[in-house]
Structure formats: C-alpha cells, structure tokens
Amino acid sequence: MIKAKRCIFFDRDGTLIDTPNTKSSKPKSFNNLNQVHLKKEVIEVCHHLKKDYLLMLFTNQPDVTRKKNSKINVENINFYLKKKLRLDDILVNYSDDEKNYFRKPNPGMLFYAKKRFDIDLKRSYVVGDRWRDIDAGAAAKCRTIFIDNNYSEKLNCKPDFIVKNIKQILKIIK
C-alpha cells in the first residue's frame, strides 16, 4: 500500500516574498513581477524541504476580482515562484467573498490538493504570516507554522508553532 504524501503549503505574500505594509501594519499584495523580492533564505529552505515533501503555494488574490490587479500579473508572479522554488503546484483563489469555500481562512484549497495529489493533511504543514493561513490549516487538520511579521492583526486560533523567519521552520519540519 502506498502512503499518502506529505506537503508544505506556503502562503505567498509576506511568507515567500517580502511585502510592503499598509499604514495599519497589514501586508499588501504586489501588482507585478518587478516588485517581487524573495524572502531571505527561501530558496535554501524550499530546496531542503523538497527532498521529503511536496511544496505548494496557496494564496488568496482578491484584488483581481476587485479590479485592483490583473490575473496575468498574479499568474506571472506565481509562475516565477513555481519555477524559482521548484513548487509542485499553485493554488489560487480570486474571490473576495468570505463564504467562498476555497478562500482562506476556509480550507477548500487544502482539501482540493489532498484529493488531487493524495496528500495526508495530518502529516503536512501550512506556513503563513496571517490569521487566514493558520485558520485554513487548522480547519484542514494540518500542522500550522505562523511567521510573525509583527502585523497589527490578531490570530483567531493558536498555531502549532511560531517563528520569526522562514529559515526557522527547518528546526520544526523534519
């Protein structure tokens, strides 16, 4: 019998790439690839984890629906990240409807990946910098790692682990 795969689900903005903050200390999404700068040590972290885990990006991009960004800009950024970090897949939700099952904090993207790639969510991790990421991971029964970027927003549920930078996840994920 083949064992289900393990996966690391990464949030995009503020987790894999640096993002500017708004005046209220919340992260903003980028509108084009020229603005993208990978977080320090992200390539090294992904290279190390790739040996034992599927690597996926899962991201909300409601600015497309809100007409503040184009789908092609989001896709260009995501394709760049997929290639540069050797990600197995990218899951994107463009909705700004909080009730949309595939929009974080709802777990739809994670359950979709579970079914499509035969992933064992209980042996997988969600790594993110916002409450939405942690809530989605908890709802899917993944282990959660919160990267504390000192935003002004609060967490709804307690993450399994809290780190200050992405390199610290290597001490947690074995």
The outline comes out as globular
Q: Count every beta strand, where a strand is a DSSP E run of 2 or more residues.
A: 6
Strand order of the largest sheet: 3-2-1-4-5-6
How would you classify the helix and strand content by structural class? alpha/beta
Report the helical percentage: 10-25%
Order of helices and strands: EHEHEHEHEE
End-to-end Cα distance: 23 Å
pLDDT averaged over residues: 94
Rg, alpha carbons: 15 Å
Give the oligomeric state of the chains in this entry, treating copies of one chain as homo and distinct chains as hetero: single chain
SSE blueprint:
Blueprint: E1 7-10, H1 42-49, E2 54-60, H2 71-85, E3 89-93, H3 108-117, E4 125-128, H4 131-139, E5 143-147, E6 161-163
Task: Please give a quick description of this structure.
The chain has 174 residues and is of the alpha/beta class. It contains four helices and six strands, in the order βαβαβαβαββ. Helix 2 (71-85) links the parallel strand 2 and strand 3.
What does this molecule look like?
The protein has 174 residues and is an alpha/beta fold. 24% of the residues lie in helices and 16% in strands. It has a six-stranded parallel beta sheet, sandwiched between helices. The chain is globular and about 45 Å long. It starts with 6 loop residues before the first strand and ends in an 11-residue tail after the last strand.
Name some characteristics of this structure.
single chain; 174 residues; alpha/beta; 16% strand
